[in-house]
Amino acid sequence: MVTGLVIGLVSLAVGFIVGKAMNLGSRGVGGRRYQLVAALLTYLAVSMSAVPIAIHQMRQQHQAQVQSQNTAAQHQHLSVAKAVGVLALLGIASPLLDLRDPIHGFIGLIILFVGIRFAWRLTAGREIIVSGPHTQSPAGVI
């Protein structure tokens, strides 16, 4: 909201940062489970960025409603758990909800996919080569 940056472009950086952090945290081991976690964390980080925007928009709507009514505002109280649940679902679904504007939504999904791909590739498993006097070749012959 403050910077005006397109969230889709930020997802490239998020994917890179998550992939590098996972690689650093696993000390370069990587593998399928690290790739899945990195992809999930990248998706959640990018999609949940819609939550503060939604809170800001709801707050503005509420203020506009209160100002338009001359009488005392009727407040609807939501439980905290329900509000958090609704915001979490809204955040998780936000990349798909952006498809209401097909062109921008589709471009955003492609950029999100590329960000997830960055995280996926950076956490790929590495072949560990062990050499020494007590290692055997695959056929058992040295």
State the main characteristics.
142 residues; mainly alpha; disordered N terminus
Query: What is the mean predicted local confidence, pLDDT?
Result: 75
Radius of gyration: 23 Å
Which segments are poorly predicted (pLDDT under 50) over 5 or more consecutive residues? 1-5
Beta-strand content estimate: under 5%
Q: Please, what is the oligomeric state?
A: single chain
First-residue to last-residue Cα separation: 63 Å
The number of strands is: 0
The amount of helix comes to 55-70%
Order of helices and strands: HHHHH
Structural class: mainly alpha
Silhouette: elongated
Biggest β-sheet strands, sense, barrel = none
Query: What count of helical segments does DSSP give?
Result: 5
Please characterize this protein's 3D structure:
The chain is mainly α. The protein is 65% helix and 0% strand. It has five helices and no strands. The chain is elongated, with a radius of gyration of 23 Å. The termini are far apart.
Provide a quick synopsis of the model.
The protein has 142 residues and is mainly α. It contains five helices and no strands.
Helix-strand blueprint:
Elements: H1 7-25, H2 32-47, H3 50-68, H4 80-97, H5 102-122
